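Run log, item B.
One chain of 523 residues. Sequence copied directly from the ordering sheet:
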Amino acid sequence: MKHRVEIFDSTLRDGAQGEGISFSVNDKLNIVKSLDAFGVDYIEAGNPGSNPKDMDFFKQVSNIELKNAKLCAFGSTCRNGVKPEDDANIKSLLASNTKVVVIFGKAWDLHVTEILKISLEENLNIVKNTIEYLKSNDKYVIFDAEHFFDGFKANEDYAMKVLETAAESGADTLTLCDTNGGTLPSEIYKITSLIKGKFSSIKISIHCHNDSGCAVANSMLAIEAGADQVQGTFIGIGERCGNADLSVIIPNLKLKAGCECNGELESLFSVTRRIAEIANTQIENNRPYTGQSAFAHKGGMHIDGVLKITSSFEHVSPEAVGNKRKFLMSEVSGRSTLLAKAAVIAPELKKDSPEAAQILEKLKEMEHYGYHFEAADASFELLVKRTLGMYKPHFKLVLYKTMGDFPIPEGGMSASATIKVEVDGQTEMAAAMGNGPVNALDLAMRKALSVFFPSIGDIQLTDYKVRVLEENSTTAAKVRVLIETADDEHSWTTIGVSNDIIEASITALVDSIEYKLAMSEKE
């Protein structure tokens, strides 16, 4: 029988403690909906006793009908010398109206005596009293043994006593927390095995932080040792170095470890990106499973292998996690890559044809100059079509001029640009003010061309990146410009390279509009 593992998400509570992360109430409500649709078992949504925003959230979230997940409120044990029923934090937990509450308590004697400044026995009493009170209020109680692994290594008897007290008081799940994130996988496996053997009739959960870079590995080994639940956050966001990354752990469990767990794996890519967008954080391109480069292939032999047998260079199918395979164009790619990339553009192109060799030669020539087509698929498509004689430009750029103002005017429009274009023998000139010369050029070009091509009215420049290619050449250095453009349905990236940053930018801008016009013709 497959090992069943519960997925406990703490993106909205522990994840929110990460630097630069701040969720509004509406953000949290949207993430709850996404996590529930994905299918996690538990959503730890916040600490109602810590701030008014979380209390407001718990009031509003009660209007959402969850189909898969159980919502959890998080808080600490009652204060020493205060009865649970009189403790403000416990009152807030009950007021949140969640069926599940998560209580953290100290499992490291150092924290008990030196941080809380109470006796070891007093700490056991507040754990006991808190859990018993919550159980008397019909709550499902998950007890987070804070700093458990550090506490176990420092004073095994006391750490075990804390777990025993929680279990005897009625806790439904015991969470072993590597709060400082410094425990290594071998230690996690050994200690979790021991705990699972001793507490065989109660659920054991694992909660790992990534301070030693081992959070995912530690979580996987704890599950191998018998843990019934894994806690973490999407994208691994969290305090300091972050938490165990559920967007890696879940596919590991389902595709690698043979475990049974909830989660619609095919939507992993999209839900991860949705959460990242709401959190206003980046997903690294090389992030396992959900990164843009997770299934990207560049080496010619690698690509040739994937085209023949996908598993030759892919550990899982990208579609299994909602991602896509990507072949990157570069001077080391070879004909296999070229054919795979160009098949959509020119299906009749043969691997050993003179045309394929011509495109590859042109690609190598341009990359030697400084072009880099990995992240500029739109420019690559135009390159292929131009080289094969399949493309007629929609317009000709006759001239452009830019001027800058100093000091910068109060309104922020620091530059002006004039553009002249020609379409089928007709010319049009336009001028525009912008926040810098590139913005002014973009506005002026679209203004001039919209007379002939109204469809470009819905596009906008969404990203602009510049990289200096010859660092020792100072202000005369060659630069590479990448421009991302989007309309209501698509986004695409184009590239320009020159010793003149304006010329590099205008090259990328022209390609961007040409690509949009080509797409409009297809539609």
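Observations after the first pass:
- The chain has 17 helices and 16 strands.
- The longest strand covers residues 396-404.
Flagged for discussion on Thursday.
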